[in-house]
Specification:
Layout lengths: L2 H10 L4 E5 L6 H10 L4 E5 L1 H5 L6 H11 L5 E9 L10 H11 L3 E5 L5 H17 L4 E5 L14 H7 L6 H11 L3 E4 L24 H11 L3 E3 L7 H10 L1 E6 L1 H14 L2 H19 L6 H4 L2
Parallel strand pairs: 1-2, 1-8, 2-3, 3-4, 4-5, 5-6, 6-7, 7-8
Helix pairs in contact: 2-4, 2-12, 5-6, 6-8, 8-9, 9-10, 11-12
Length: about 300
């Protein structure tokens, strides 16, 4: 399957491609099976922090596991967040990671230079786009400040952040960014919240979030490329559905599957039991939250 064509087809049909994160390697098998059993199309993805701070081991190990359980016509392998400046505010040697992912068979990649200036973000993204496009795969980038609580709960109340559109992606910046960076998909900041990675917050419920539907529609109209929503867990379902209609064509989901796996392991320390919990929750998300069950009939043809 061609990741670029599928995400574009999702945009054109007002559908969405879920992208499920793998912070723990055993999660991959049940997620792939859930996607198949719901006749959906989804990405299975891993971010750098998930092999640095969780238990996905490496991007190569995820690719090896994916090769065992990939479902033809239903799953794609995506490299999620490779930061230029990471969550600890350290510089990352990101280009070799992208090259490793291409060698390992990833079908799309994401570079996150959103902690840089606009010009810096454009330059870093363009450097990745040049490498990825030469290999025939699409690039996702991020613009704006998707909220998160990596180290502690945000000091500013969520409602104030949303009302003032603090860190939200602007149409002006996005237009320049897409034109000059050569990215294929753009992750936008429109109200969602990244999941926690700090130890004291790992099992906490995410702050309730909503989406600025009007801003999403404005961005999609101005850019005419698929938009991506990071921090998909914890958003009211009505906002998700409206966001898809407005231009969100890929949505990342991590916390909603990581937490059931980790809770199950604490309860029984049984990988197969934890896998079953992930499988059930993933099917629920596909069917009842994202409403992508059966989408393979449209997206994979």
């Amino acid at each position: 399957m061609d990741a670029k064509k599928i995400v574009r087809k999702a945009l054109e049909n007002k559908l969405v491609v879920p992208a499920f994160n793998i912070p723990h390697l055993p999660m991959l098998k049940p997620i792939a099976q859930a996607v198949l059993d719901e006749n959906s199309v989804a990405m299975i993805q891993v971010a750098r922090l998930e092999w640095e701070k969780f238990e996905s081991e490496s991007l190569e190990r995820v690719a090896e596991e994916y090769a065992k359980y990939a479902k033809e016509g239903h799953t794609l392998l995506h490299l999620d967040h490779v930061p230029v400046i990471d969550e600890d505010h350290l510089e990352v040697d990101y280009l070799p990671i992208i090259q490793r992912a291409i060698k390992a068979g990833y079908q799309s990649v994401m570079v996150d230079a959103s902690r840089l200036s606009l010009e810096g973000n454009i330059a870093a993204t363009k450097s990745v786009a040049d490498i990825a496009h030469a290999a025939g795969i699409p690039v996702e980038a991020e613009l704006g400040a998707v909220m998160g609580h990596e180290t502690e709960q945000a000091a500013i109340p969520y409602e104030e952040i949303f009302e003032k559109k603090m860190g939200f992606t602007t149409v002006e910046d996005a237009t320049k960014f897409v034109r000059e960076s050569d990215c294929d998909w753009l992750s936008v900041a429109v109200g969602s919240v990244h999941g926690a990675i700090a130890a004291n917050l790992l099992d906490k419920k995410k702050p309730a979030a909503k989406l600025d539907i009007e801003r999403i529609a404005e961005l999609e109209k101005a850019l005419d490329i698929p938009l991506v929503l990071h921090g998909g867990s914890g958003i009211e379902n009505d906002y998700i559905l409206k966001g898809i209609q407005a231009g969100i064509a890929k949505i990342n989901v991590g916390t909603e599957l990581r937490q059931p796996y980790e809770r199950a392991m604490r309860e029984k320390n049984d990988v197969e039991y934890a896998r079953e919990c992930v499988y059930k929750r993933c099917r629920e998300l596909i069917r009842d939250f994202l409403h992508t069950a059966g989408d393979a009939e449209i997206l994979a043809k």
